[in-house]
């Protein structure tokens, strides 16, 4: 499993709905609710990097470069760790190689 | 052919099979099935376009069906020979996830990489050979928009048959631990995604631009709660305005054609029942179906363009919050809005709603929206009410539309509280990058839907049209000599089954303010809603031709009096009739489509029942209420 050691408080767990737009994060836990299966198959699962594009209900996430509109009811069941401050996820990933 | 939604699979399928495609449903489900004939160098194969899937784990009905076909357990396609996996190059990780699941199906695989131009724009440089090595199967890059690559794909699949399906090498399966989820902390998806990411990082050489800047900026506006909503309303208004504006010319042409056809028939055939049957029953019925085609085709075409461009996902996003108040998902809004053109294609387009219960509720309430067939009736009633006051007339017209929408939303809310309880499935929607819509896809889609409409609705409408003709012609009346033709028509109608049923119905509809003449008009509306106009025209002694001269008809109706001298069309009666037509289910072809989309007559019957009760009760309340207020 990838471990992200970027700047930002390490290992503080947030819920996805708590994050502001522009936040970049890594999924640290998703409930096993069958409702969430769809979510996982779209890339929102343990260890993946997400970017919050728009907060609110529904909110917009970016995962693997794809925009996904998601209801808060689902998003609030996703736990994440921060992966840093405001620079965009993709740029950071590209820089990493 | 399998792949993610929005991966360019449909475009590729259309390219490979051209016009030789068939559509339908997978047996016993409402999942659409598309298959076509694909010409390979050595022969022809049947290419089955599986619904877009994110995973074979069957979280949705589409995925379940797709998984069954690939596993060889679908009764209709027991032994697939090979699978073409469509992979979106700009979205490799997620697409490879599905690929990794498909490798377990023990089928030859050919991977087709689409959207390479977009990947290139993002600065992605994909090493195709390395990808082939890693995946263990042929990988072909195509650019479908430019028409390149179809031949290479055909050759690659031909190769499978040359080798022999059983002998052709299978792709590499990801290792046990990737698949079984050990070390995944309970997330079986984790292993596969990590595997995908590993492959992508090995295979993609550089990736500098952040993808989709234009999309990002557009989305800031279009998903904004206020601006986005405003844009959506403008787009919808523009859509319907375009449809109504562009459809009138072909609609008039079609009406003209059929009336000429009818007149021609009159002159060619001897007078008699057969001629009348052909003219009014058959030609009238067929003409009645075809006259809706321009609207339906335009609606589907424009919606397909909007969908392909990526905008509809944003519309669903923006409307989601509003629709949740009545327990419907945002994706229900476009079908419900389409119901204002015609409920039949609107019900067909509810397939975009992923949750079965949400879809069912939407289908059940959709016909409450005022479709264009109701407009002639609204106009008639409003002219009766307000002969010289156009603003009041317009106001009431808008009110009728508003009533339809309110009724639909309230009914949805009611259904959710009672018979179909449960929260709406929460929104989880991919919003693809904006792109120029593909005209050919839209055209093929339109043809597909138009043909379904003609086949399903057409047969029912024809049947009803002929039945109503039979009911209005038999038994024949003895018309005395020297009676003017319009009077003769009136006598014949009264004497027929339709006339007798109308008279017998009178006690039932009296509380709504209608007498038996209006009753006959309502009966004829079962063939086509606007048939009430010609029905009333005949019944009040103006003959069928009287319907053509609207103002004359309205004048006559206004002067019509009952046996006791009171006017028939009092304001109370008019409003009651209006409300009845807003809410009543008179378009029986809608039942046919409902049955197909819901899979049973039970729901179609329920729809007919609850709408009839609703219409009757509302009309009753309106009539009695207005009468008490002194408007009767």
Description of the structure:
The complex is a heterodimer of chains A (97) and B (632). Chain A is α+β, with helices and mostly antiparallel strands. In chain A, 18% of the residues lie in helices and 32% in strands. Chain A has helices spanning 37-41, 72-75, 89-96; strands at 13-15, 24-30, 49-54, 59-63, 66-70, 78-82. Mean pLDDT of chain A is 76; it is low at 1-8 and 91-97. Chain B has a domain at 2-209: Rossmann fold, CATH 3.40.50. The model of chain B has no long low-confidence stretch (mean pLDDT 85). In chain B, strand 3 (32-40) and strand 4 form a beta hairpin. Chain B has helices spanning 9-17, 61-71, 92-102, 116-121, 128-135, 150-163, 176-180, 188-203, 213-222, 227-268, 273-290, 293-309, 311-324, 333-338, 343-348, 356-365, 375-385, 390-417, 439-473, 485-495, 497-509, 516-524, 531-539, 550-559, 571-583, 588-598, 601-628; strands at 2-3, 21-25, 32-40, 43-49, 83-88, 109-114, 138-141, 428-431. Chain B has a four-stranded parallel sheet with strand order 1-5-6-7, with helices on both faces. In chain B, strands 2-3-4 form a three-stranded antiparallel sheet. Chain A binds chain B through residues 1-2, 30, 32, 34-35, 37-43, 45-48, 53-54, 56-58, 60, 63-71, 73-74, 88, 90-91, 93-94, 97, and chain B through 54-55, 57, 59-60, 90-94, 97, 183-187, 189-190, 193-194, 201, 206-208, 210-212, 215-216, 219, 223, 225, 313, 316-317, 320-321, 425-433.
CATH topology of the domain at 2-209 in chain B: Rossmann fold
CATH class of the domain at 2-209 in chain B: Alpha Beta
Strand content of chain A: 25-35%
Number of helical elements of chain A: 3
Order of strands across the biggest sheet of chain B? 1-5-6-7
- What is the tally of helical segments of chain B? 27
Total count of strands of chain A = 6
Largest sheet of chain B: 4 strands, parallel
Average of pLDDT of chain B: 85
Structural class of chain B: alpha/beta
Counting helices, strands and paired strands, the structural category of chain A is: alpha+beta
Number of strands of chain B: 8
The named CATH superfamily of the domain at 2-209 in chain B:
P-loop containing nucleotide triphosphate hydrolases
The top-level CATH class of chain A is Mainly Beta
The pLDDT mean of chain A sits at: 76
* Radius of gyration of chain A using CA atoms only: 12 Å
Helical content class of chain B: 55-70%
Distance between the termini of chain B: 65 Å
Helix content of chain A: 10-25%
CATH architecture of the domain at 2-209 in chain B: 3-Layer(aba) Sandwich
């Amino acid at each position: 499993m990838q471990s992200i050691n970027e700047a930002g408080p390490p290992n503080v767990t947030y819920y996805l709905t708590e994050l502001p737009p522009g936040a970049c994060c890594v999924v640290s836990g998703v409930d096993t609710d069958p409702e969430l299966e769809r979510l996982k198959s779209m890339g929102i699962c343990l260890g993946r990097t997400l970017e919050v594009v728009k907060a609110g209900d529904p909110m917009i996430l970016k995962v693997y470069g794809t925009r996904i509109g998601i209801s808060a009811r689902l998003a609030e069941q996703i736990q994440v760790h921060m992966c840093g401050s405001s620079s965009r996820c993709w740029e950071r990933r590209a820089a990493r190689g | 052919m399998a792949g993610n939604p929005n991966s360019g699979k449909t475009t590729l399928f259309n390219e490979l099979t051209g016009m030789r495609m068939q559509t339908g449903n997978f047996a016993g489900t409402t999942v659409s099935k598309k298959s076509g004939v694909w010409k390979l160098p050595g022969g022809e194969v049947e290419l089955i376009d599986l619904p877009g899937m994110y995973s074979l784990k069957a979280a949705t009905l589409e995925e379940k069906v797709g998984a069954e076909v690939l596993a060889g357990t679908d009764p209709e396609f027991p032994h697939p020979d090979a699978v073409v996996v469509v992979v979106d190059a700009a979205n490799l990780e997620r697409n490879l996830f599905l690929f990794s699941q498909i490798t377990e199906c023990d089928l030859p695989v050919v991977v087709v990489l689409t959207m390479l131009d977009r990947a290139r724009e993002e600065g992605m440089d994909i090493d195709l050979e390395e990808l082939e090595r890693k995946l263990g199967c042929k990988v072909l890059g195509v650019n479908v928009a430019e028409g390149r690559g179809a031949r290479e794909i055909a050759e690659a699949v031909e190769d499978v048959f040359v080798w022999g399906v059983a002998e052709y090498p299978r792709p590499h399966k990801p290792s046990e631990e990737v698949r079984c989820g050990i070390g995944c902390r309970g997330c079986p998806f984790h292993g596969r995604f990590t595997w995908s990411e590993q492959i992508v990082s090995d295979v993609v050489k550089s990736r500098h631009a952040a993808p989709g800047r234009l999309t990002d900026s557009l989305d800031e506006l279009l998903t904004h709660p206020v601006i986005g909503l405003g844009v959506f309303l403008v787009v919808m208004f523009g859509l319907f305005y375009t449809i109504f504006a562009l459809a009138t010319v072909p609609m008039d042409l079609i009406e003209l054609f059929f009336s000429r056809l009818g007149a021609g028939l009159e002159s060619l055939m001897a007078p008699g029942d057969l001629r009348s049957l052909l003219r009014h029953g058959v030609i009238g019925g067929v003409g009645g179906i075809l006259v809706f085609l321009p609207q339906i085709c335009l609606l589907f075409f424009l919606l397909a363009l909007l969908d392909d461009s990526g905008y509809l996902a944003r519309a669903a996003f923006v409307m989601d919050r509003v629709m949740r108040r009545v327990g419907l998902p945002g994706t229900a809004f476009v079908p419900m809005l389409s119901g204002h053109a015609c409920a039949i294609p609107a019900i067909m387009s509810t397939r975009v709603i992923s949750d079965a219960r949400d879809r069912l509720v939407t289908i059940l309430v959709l016909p409450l929206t005022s479709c264009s067939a109701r407009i002639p009736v609204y106009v008639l009633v409003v002219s009766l009410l307000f002969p010289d006051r156009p603003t009041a007339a317009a106001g009431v017209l808008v009110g009728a539309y508003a009533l339809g929408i309110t009724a639909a939303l309230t009914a949805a809310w009611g259904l959710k509280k009672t018979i179909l309880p449960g929260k709406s499935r929460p929104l989880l929607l991919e919003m693809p990058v904006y792109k120029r819509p593909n005209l050919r896809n839209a055209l093929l889609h339109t043809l597909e839907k138009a043909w379904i409409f003609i086949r399903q609705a057409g047969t029912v409408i024809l049947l009803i049209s002929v039945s109503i003709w039979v009911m209005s012609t038999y038994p024949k009346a003895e018309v005395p000599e020297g009676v003017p033709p319009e009077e003769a028509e009136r006598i014949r109608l009264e004497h027929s089954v339709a006339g007798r049923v109308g008279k017998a119905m009178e006690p039932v509809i009296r509380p709504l303010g209608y007498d038996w003449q209006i009753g006959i008009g309502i009966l004829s509306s079962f063939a086509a809603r606007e048939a009430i106009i010609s029905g009333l025209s005949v019944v009040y002694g103006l003959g069928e031709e009287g319907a053509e001269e609207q103002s004359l008809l309205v004048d006559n109706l206004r002067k019509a009096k009952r046996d006791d001298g009171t006017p028939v069309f009092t304001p109370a009666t008019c409003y009651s009739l209006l409300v009845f037509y807003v809410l009543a289910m008179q378009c029986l072809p809608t039942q046919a489509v409902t049955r197909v989309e819901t899979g049973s007559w039970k729901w179609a019957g329920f729809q007919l029942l609850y709408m009839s009760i609703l219409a009757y009760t509302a009309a009753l309340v309106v009539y009695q209420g207005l009468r008490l207020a002194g408007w009767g």
